Prior knowledge:
The complex is a heterodimer. By secondary structure, chain A is an alpha+beta fold. Chain A has helices at residues 2-6, 63-75, 134-145, 164-169, 177-180, 186-204; strands at 13-18, 41-46, 53-57, 84-91, 108-113, 131-133, 150-157. Chain A has a single domain, classed as PAC-like subunit (Rossmann fold, 3-Layer(aba) Sandwich). Chain B contains 5 helices and 12 strands. Chain B has helices spanning 31-42, 103-116, 149-162, 191-201, 218-232; strands at residues 2-4, 20-24, 46-51, 59-62, 75-76, 79-84, 89-94, 121-129, 143-147, 170-173, 177-182, 205-212. Chain B: It comes from Anhinga rufa (African darter).
Amino acid sequence: AFLxxxxxxxxxxxxxxxxxxxxEWCRTSNTTNVLPTDSFCLFYRLISDPTVLLCQCSCxxxxxxxxxxxxxxxxxxxxxxxxxxxxxxxxxxxYKTQESTLTLPSPFLRALKTKEFKGQVCCPLLEQPNIxxxxxAAVLSYCQVWQIPAVLYQCYTDVIxxxxxxxxxxxxxxxxxxxxxxxxxxSESTKILKKLLTTNETHSNIYI
Amino acid sequence: xxxxxDRGGGAAGSDFKGFTLLMPAVSVGNVGxxxxxxxISTLDMTKVGYFYTDCLVPMVGNNPYATAExxxxxxxxxxxxxxxxxxxxxxxxxxxxFIKNKYRPFCQTxxxxxxxxxxxxxVLLSSSHAYQRDDEQLLGTPLRYLLTPDLEKAVGGxxxxxxxxxxxxxxxxPGINDTxxxxxxxxxxxxxxxxxESCSEGIQMAVLLKFCSEGDxxxxxxxxxxxxxxxxxxxxxxxxxxxxxxxxxxxVPSSWRLLFGNGLPPALF
Lengths: 208, 269
């Protein structure tokens, strides 16, 4: 959602690829006539600068498919000069700390970076004994092993549904070197943010 | 597959000829993995590479053996290799469970790496469900060992001297026919598969395991690592007059904090 509001728009970005997964977690109703844009994993490329790619993965990638997802996606990319940024969210209840999680000022960001990543990190690093799982972990592991600079920003939030506060927790990233040049006009962002949230709200309403 | 950390000329990092490979089985109580953590942490071993595989669930985190601010920001993944050339020891630590149907491919990849890197022998730390013990196993020590025929020739005598107990075989058809016996390690994860594959491939492997249950397995980890130390003598074990409690000589890694959850909210009281 953060990326949709602040970075993506139809003018500057074009869809260049999809990853189709067979996955019982994916809610595809019609498997024979799936359009590329119906897929849950879309790749966009910045028209003005084809070296910038954006991936939006809105479904859960099962653990036995994560490796294959990685191999397919990174197999198509040139690894020289590649830099990867991963954005992810996680329930704050999973965060291990000396204090109770009730007193933590959530949402908050924590980062993990590979050895090769030499850039500035916009928030504190993830403290031990916390770990990251699933696709973000798979991507970061791949980058660490194959010496690709990569950084993961994990947002710990106490809200299950999409909400502005969690999305805005990612705002410090807008000033980072990688994303600075990609940011859209601020006023438009707020409009899109509102739209995203209202569509979700109507779905979750059980009353007509 | 093994991927060294250092891609440069340094072949020292990935030359394990004649080394002992120590590794855990992902088994009940994660005892093998906890014991391996103790070895890596106490001996301050250096990370030399990753075991990159699609057989384990991915996970990442910062350095679990961090001792200070400076060394706490190194990223760790689910399977890493550490080495201590002075003791000819190489350790593979596994930090996540196996993906369904991936036991056999993992065993095959691991054993082919053992052969190609010319490790002298493999020591597998494992555990087995305590509730599956028979009446005789309930008495005496909960620690057991197993040796492949090739290693039996080399160190079988030493095991006798140490007064160690070999893992008993169980009847294949209990109650019906007690003559046919088979190896049975419930809760041991890949232990039995890896052991039987090593036997047939002529690899020198020892399995050290402890009967335990899920719960606070830190004491089990200490027991297993002290058992290992009786044989490999990795650290000097000081035997005091009253007891042989050598747990204080093993360094607990910083990542063992908060194993049983966060602090309590004050509002609870």
